[in-house]
Amino acid sequence: MSSPPVTGSATVPRHHGRPGPARFRPRRTVPAGAVRPERRGVLSHWRQYLAISPFFLIFGVFSFFPVFYSLYLAFQRWDGLGTVQFVGLQQFRFLWDDPVFWLSIRNTLVIWVLSTVPTLFGALVLATLLHSVRRFKGFYRIALYVPNVTSIVAVSIFFGAVFSNNFGLVNAILGTVGISPVPWLSNPWLIKLVIALLMTWMWTGYNMIIYLAGLQAIPAQIYEAARLDGAGPIRTFFQITMPIMRPIILFTVIISTINGLQSFSEPQVLFGSNAANPNLGGPGQAGLTTLLYFYQSAFVNNDYGYGAAIVWAFFVLIMVLVVVNWRLVQRGRKS
């Protein structure tokens, strides 16, 4: 009879004076016919890097280098042709005591508030209405997004003609109902309002598309469950839609803050800002934004060092406002 199988680990007996049988070891050599994987270094992909190098070269020459060179100019005095003279922090000291700079900051902040709040609110309302539309949804999307792809210069010329003090379309309509002409482009507050309306008209469609994409990503089962629980449209919007849309709203707030504070073409085209115009930004410099003041200092007065100081001080202000807006939205999310 055959012996029963041995379970467990079998030990190989060692004979007296002779070693036991050799243990099996896996072969480390590559079998015949097998392909050894080739080790590739960074230089082996030089063709791919060469193909994408034009973008990085253009970005480095026209974007990366000018940013850091402007920081270098902020500590120099240079008119663009003469010798560069190091002045340290004198540009920033003069900037701190410059009343025109602080006037441009106030104008920029007022225009930013007057344009950003209606833009985001109107975009959210339009996105909600468009999300519930069943027919012609594509037509409405295109119609609301067209202002964003229109030239800023063309839109500014159009608004200048519509809100003209003497021959504007708005004053002509007001005259038909017995209202005297309104000095849209002469009154300091109305100047800011016209610029804010222009920016609102251009950027509402852009934010509306972003909000609409966020609304379409919300599962319909959530709204059906809320409807079964007896939640109305208003309660559903504030307790379901708004909390889910909060990250998207945070993104639009940050983007609108950056874009809204960089208003330049609107007041420049509306008021024909050039070297021969002493009232840069309109009467009383009511439409003088910070970037427009930078343009005057650097390219009209040929003071590139002071212009660089204005830009970097304004960059710090933008970063502070972005962080403040981000903290406010995040605090509302946690609460």
CATH architecture: Orthogonal Bundle
Strand order of the largest sheet: 1-2
The rough form would be described as globular
Structural class: mainly alpha
Gyration radius over CA: 33 Å
Mean pLDDT: 84
How much helix is in the residues? 55-70%
How many strands, what sense, and barrel or not for the largest sheet? 2 strands, antiparallel
N- to C-terminal separation? 81 Å
Question: Roughly what fraction of the amino acids lie in strands?
Answer: under 5%
Q: What is the top-level CATH class? A: Mainly Alpha
| CATH fold-level name | MetI-like fold
Q: Note the total helix count.
A: 12
User: What is the H level of CATH, i.e. the homologous superfamily?
Assistant: MetI-like
Strands, count = 2
Low-confidence stretches at least 5 residues in length (pLDDT < 50)?
6-12
The helix/strand series, from N terminus to C terminus, equals: HEEHHHHHHHHHHH
Query: What is the number of independent domains?
Result: 1
Pfam family, one: BPD_transp_1
Membrane topology: Multi-pass membrane protein
Subcellular location: Cell membrane
Keywords: Cell membrane, Membrane, Transmembrane, Transmembrane helix, Transport
